[in-house]
TrEMBL record:
<dbReference type="Pfam" id="PF10558">
    <property type="entry name" value="MTP18"/>
</dbReference>
<protein>
    <recommendedName>
        <fullName>Mitochondrial fission process protein 1</fullName>
    </recommendedName>
</protein>
<dbReference type="GO" id="GO:0000266">
    <property type="term" value="P:mitochondrial fission"/>
</dbReference>
<dbReference type="GO" id="GO:0005739">
    <property type="term" value="C:mitochondrion"/>
</dbReference>
<comment type="similarity">
    <text>Belongs to the MTFP1 family.</text>
</comment>
<dbReference type="InterPro" id="IPR019560">
    <property type="entry name" value="Mitochondrial_18_kDa_protein"/>
</dbReference>
Length: 169
């Protein structure tokens, strides 16, 4: 939730963020839709990632340019912007698209396999697999987000000279 002092981040604090989950929904429905439709959901999710990167880069550049006008910064606004954009691109790619998509794919694959060993009809198996995939999405989001922050805090962020992410939840 956004406090009164924080700026609203349309890509993190509004329903726009659900665009980043499009590929997870596509993976959950994989057994019921065409491969092209699944790929399209990845297009939506990566579109969200790129829009968030552009947003963070623009905000950082404006902020750093204003700070540079007031004093001599340690690094140029362009350099700081490139670092923030890189961090956002890597984090969003892994936390919003790659890891969740793979996770839902594997959950659905396992569910489908297990359901094929029961007396459920193939159609019921597809429906149940999709429901299991959709139902697992809320449970994987926060652990994946936190895990990505932890890994990036120990690897990429120190290399880029970016402060570790503060997890407030």
């Amino acid at each position: 939730m956004v406090s009164k002092t924080d700026e609203l981040d349309i890509f993190r604090d509004t329903p726009v963020r659900y665009m980043g989950y499009a590929n997870e929904i596509g993976e959950a429905f994989r057994s019921m839709i065409s491969p092209a439709a699944v790929r399209a959901t990845y297009g939506v999710a990566f579109g969200y990632v790129f829009l968030d990167v552009i947003d963070k880069a623009n905000k950082t550049f404006k902020k750093e340019t204003k700070l540079a006008e007031l004093s001599t910064p340690k690094e140029s606004p362009k350099s700081k912007t490139a670092k923030i954009a890189t961090d956002c691109l890597i984090w969003q790619s892994f936390a919003s698209v790659i890891i969740p998509g793979f996770t839902i794919n594997r959950i659905c694959k396992l569910s489908s396999y297990l359901l094929s060993k029961t007396s459920a009809s193939p159609k019921a198996g597809k429906i149940l697999t999709t429901l299991i995939g959709l139902g697992s999405i809320p449970f994987i989001i926060h652990p994946i987000d936190h895990g990505c922050h932890i890994v990036m805090d120990k690897t990429i962020r120190p290399y880029l000279g970016i402060d570790p992410h503060v997890i407030t939840e």
